[in-house]
Amino acid sequence: MKYELAKQLKGAGFPFQDSYAADLDMWGEKFSIKIDGTIYLIPILSELIEACGSEFSRLSRFSITKLGTNEVVRYRWEAETYPEIEPEIKESIWADGKTSEEAVAKLYIKLNEKK
Q1: Spatial contact of 111 and 53, defined as CB atoms under 8 Å apart
Q2: Does residue 16 sit in helix, strand or coil?
Q3: What is the pLDDT averaged over residues 65-69?
Q4: In the chain, how many domains are there?
Q5: What share of the chain has pLDDT > 90, as a percent?
Q6: S-S: 90 plus which of 10, 45, 55, 83, CB 3.0-4.6 Å?
Q7: CA distance to 34, 42, 73, 106, per residue, from 1 (Å)
Q8: Which domain holds residue 107?
Q9: What phi, psi does 72 have (nearest 5°)?
């Protein structure tokens, strides 16, 4: 996870786990990030989905192909909420990213900036 996205996620209230609560030697730098002087474990996909709450609906992967061919150039991930029907109709909220974690992290940020 890139620093800017992690900082936005932290600012939106994501409950990062302090890396000192875990064995940092076991996780290493690849799985941790320093934000404002504190080292946190980078959340895994299931933690991000769980944090989005009951409105989380779907995570999809789309292929981006080379024009005129079936050759996949890259993939794009999209995370989406399910709109509540009652007591009021809400629109679906979605976010996309290069990775599944990035898409769900961006969805969490969108969900929590409205609160």
Answers
A1: yes
A2: coil
A3: 86
A4: 1
A5: 45
A6: 83
A7: 11, 7, 21, 11
A8: 3-113
A9: -75, 125
